[in-house]
Amino acid sequence: MTNAWTDIKNTDLVIVMGGNAAEAHPCGFKWVTEAKHHNGAKLIVVDPRFTRTASVADVYAPVRPGSDIAWLMGVIRYCLKNDKVQWDYVKAYTNATCLIRDDFGWSEGLFTGYDEEKRDFDRSSWEYQMDEQGQPLTDPTLTHPRCVWNLLKEHVEVYTPEFVSNLTGTPVDRYLQICEMIGETSAKDKVMTSLYALGWTQHSKGAQNIRGMAMLQLILGNIGLPGGGVNALRGHANIQGLTDIGLLSHMMPGYMNLPTEREPELADWLKARENKPLFPGQTSFWRNTDKFMVSFLKSLWGEKATAENDWGYGWLPKLDVPYYDILRVFDMMDRSEINLYICQGFNPLLSFPNRAKLTSALSKLKLLVSIDPLQTETVNFWQDHGIYNDVDPTKIMTEVIELPSTCFAEDDGATVNSGRWLQWHWQAATPPGTAKHDTWIMAQLFLRVKRLYEEEGGANPEPIMSLSWDYHEPENPHPEELAKEMNGRALADLPDPNDPTKVLRKAGELLDNFGQLRADGSTMSGCWIYAGSWTEAGNMMARRDNHDEGGVGTYLGWTFAWPANRRILYNRASCDLQGKPWDPKRKLLEWNGARWEGFDVPDISPTAKPEEVMPFIMTQEGTARLFSRKLLRDGPFPTHMEPWESPIQNPFNKEMRGNPAGRIFPQDLAQLGTSDEFPFVGTSYRLTEHFHYWTKHSKTNAVLQPEFFVEISVELAELRGVRKGGRVRIWNKRGEIWAKAVVTKRIKPLLCDGKEVHVVGIPLHWGFMGAARKGFGPNSLTVFAGDANIDTPESKVFLVNIEPASGDLIA
Amino acid sequence: MTSLAPEPLTAASNPPTQPLESNLLPTDVRRISATAHVPPPTRQLTEVAKLIDVSKCIGCKACQSACIQWNDTHPEVEENVGIYENPHDLTPDMFTLMRFAEWENPETNELEWLIRKDGCMHCEDPGCLKSCPAPGAIVQYTNGVVDFISENCIGCGYCVKGCPFDVPRIHKTAHVSKKCTLCSDRIAVGQGPACAKACPTQCITFGPKEEMKALAAERVEDLKERGYDNAGLYDPQGVGGTHVMYVLHHADKPSIYSGLPVDPRISPLVEAWKGPAKKLGLMAAGAAFLGSALHGIFAKPNEVSEHEEEEAEELYEDIVHEAPEASGGEAHGPVASGEEAR
């Protein structure tokens, strides 16, 4: 989230698209009902199904799964055509004025530089025109044909309401009604918030879906303002924390990328991250990456990390591929290139795509280790459960070890919510049986591997042997110690840069913020963005002061929000160029002539002069990017692409399938189906009654939603002879599943490209373990391919067929 | 909106964890089933109500979950039969149920998914209590809560017939009638009902009835501004008002919310069984009826038989001719007979 859950109360308009907040985030959704009740806010829901979020919406529009980019580009076109633009904001705070190279262009669905063989773009033309000093050329009048603004206008021109309606299935009148509502928030005293989740990420162009909304919000001037923003509703209790501390194959803590093999020395890695400001006086905060990185390396290897050995940089793994995402890992497993898999707090057999391939891959392992509080399907993948898990245990040689671990209520620690709040919690229950904390399990694994090295030696011992492990109880590091380690400490006395006679922090003391981090080895921090979460003043994450200074819902005394306890990112943009709030009634910050003051921690240097330093301090420009340059693999503007499996052809390019920059493995390409054979669009989602695959282990949740079902329209039910409560079979080239049919008016056939498109809704909570009835998940059918930038699987769109099934027991 | 309704009790944060004294005393009871002379309560508690704002309900079933957990009931894991309701109906182990109705608004041609939390309405004039022949099985406190006292319940099912909302359910093996108690045990220590506490969107709120009406008025105003011209409060007067109320977008059509009664009243049959009993007693003409009622009470299965219903219907016919005012629902002292017959 750019903003916070509590901030939603400030909004005038909520758009839920690419998510289903009421069902998947019911507790956070209270802030939407609060905004409706006390702020007169309106709620728009755009979804293939009329969801429970839609049931409390002011306006609902259906949309074909996978057509969101066209929908959003059409809204941008509407805003541009109808002067629904926050002009002062766009001109000052975005890169609209920058000129783009003359050789950049777009035609037939592709940006310049496409190489079909590599399935990749040469992105060199996706760049500014620069002067001799390397500063982008700009046109503040926005008249130059090569300025970002005019290129954007040209780019969105094709997305007329009729074109959008034809692609997305949203009726034109409903679409225009929503465009009008959204456009109204371009006024300086009106603001819209966008709430999305996996309905936008789980696509072959997930990053571009989200960029589409980010661009729209910039054009409307809604980023950085209370009640505004682009707000990712994060899953789990702690998926935000997972990404923060870098639990992705190509990441390190604090959103730093793991080195690649082209970066053998620390200097190489830093060279690519110099992040010099492109305009004078701009912050370009990532310039400080060296401080974050060295402090991180010091947290790993302590005294063993020295200037002489590059702070231990050489001991970090170096990627030989962009990343070892879950699709690549399971593909490698299926080719027997991986033989040991440690699965911690994860149930891939139901979470990842193409279950048949997953079962095949797990069956080829020598050893599968599961660290989980629950009996997952993954750890029981070798058991024969009839149609629900049709395997022959005698043919599976994989050894499986289960290490029972604890649930969140059984330990101390912090979880990070969608609003980036690190909320400390306290153990409420004793772990059952032999269950152990994950920290204990990981410590045991580490200490035993280290002992093996000591006793037997082995390849590449340094990273293990040098690892800093100075915990009070080495066998069982405490959450408090780990939290302090993530915050960071001074390793030597830190002189105050403004007054060298003073010491900011003495050696051994906890740091106050990431501003104190150094690149000379005198500080350590396990996750720089968490600096400030546990200081010498105590555990900031445990704070529970719910006083709402200013009434804008920032609650600065409640827990700790990264970065720097800031509640709304880019909040300097809530003020005009001179530093006055765009809307005096919605004041968050204000320039008082000498400093920024207000009800949030300023997202800029507190003394940064308003007309000199621009609000988007993380970019080199200081402004937000309507044109993303080379940062995304599949284009500097979002462009409509069809899903890998789609009922219609890409209108820009009949030959193009899926995302032209997306990776797909050959055997998975062969398993793609076409709409001739599989005419219906499957989509996956969650239901309120369950949380993923956990709560089916709870009897109460099982009572509330006991059995797997799919949802189809009355029209599709008639077409295929399916009746309400009847049993159906759904299948495609990758698998088949059986389910009860919920026949509903809440799904309607969509008219796209001249044909009726039927959606089959497939919720994801059932498996063959637990208290609920045995069932299936959508992942038996989903496509084993992902987003072009990050390879999040395209679980929201796939083609299926459906028919009534025998064994229909319901009278 | 200028002045806001007070925060409902359930919007407060966590209650204290130390044990609290119950403030619901035996002397706070104002009606007792099958008991003629209830001593006047020593004080009048503030009338309370649970307000269910249907326009804020997201159908998450957290209320059902909280209800199961707090009351420690054990509903069965059923099948999916093509609907979202689970369990499929109220049961002796499921005191509250989200009911889902897909309704196409003929005026706007828009689909509306009307989700209503069903359960006991805690009528001011409770048909269950009036129809109950078991002394002390059903009581009403002066705060309006209608509570079932299972140890006095004989499982006869009269309350089911007596309820204008079809709420109580008879437990097949325990032979007692079950329904929502409005968490009288929680209210007694100053907390709101479990469902209200669990509700994430403040669709369910709890507090003094007058305050809940003020909150409802605020919500109705908001809904009217959004184009729901017929938004309103459901507090049906046919049963003297209820201590569970709904804010409805279409208060002119309660029945579209999965059959919410338009004008609920206690069945005339109940009045026939119970209302005139005193009179019948005086006339010494009701002996046969009372006899058969008692037979029904003590002979299993303890349910209203068709024969009894027919008898009551005949009796009702007689009585409406004799004493038309008898069906009006007396405010105090449901009379009957267990005590007297003994």
Concise overview:
With 811 residues, chain A is of the alpha/beta class. Chain A contains 21 helices and 33 strands. Chain B starts with 28 loop residues before the first strand and ends with a helix.
Structure commentary:
The complex is a heterodimer of chains A (about 800) and B (about 350). Chain A is α/β, with parallel strands linked by helices and about 800 residues long. Among the domains of chain A are: about 5-230, Dimethylsulfoxide Reductase, domain 2; about 665-805, Barwin-like endoglucanases, CATH 2.40.40.20. Chain A is about 20% helix and about 15% strand. Chain A is built from 21 helices and 33 strands. The relative contact order of chain A is 0.14. The model of chain A has no long low-confidence stretch (mean pLDDT about 95). Chain B has one domain (about 25-265): 2-Layer Sandwich (Alpha-Beta Plaits), CATH 3.30.70.20. Chain B has a four-stranded mixed β-sheet. At the A-B interface, α2, α20 and β29 of A face α1, β4 and α6 of B.
The sequence of SSEs of chain B as H and E is EEHEEHEEHEEHHEHEEHHHHH
What is the oligomer described by this structure? heterodimer
Biggest protein-protein interface? A-B, 50 and 46 residues
Low-confidence stretches of chain B: 276-303, 319-342
The largest pleated sheet of chain B is described as:
4 strands, mixed
Whole-number radius of gyration of chain A? Answer: 27 Å
* Fraction in beta strands of chain A: 15-25%
Rg of chain B is: 20 Å
Q: How are the strands ordered across the major sheet of chain B?
A: 9-2-11-10
User: How many individual β-strands of chain B?
Assistant: 11
The secondary-structure class of chain B comes to: alpha+beta
What number is the mean pLDDT of chain A?
Answer: 97
**Helix-strand makeup class of chain A:** alpha/beta
Assign a percent range to the helix content of chain B: 25-40%
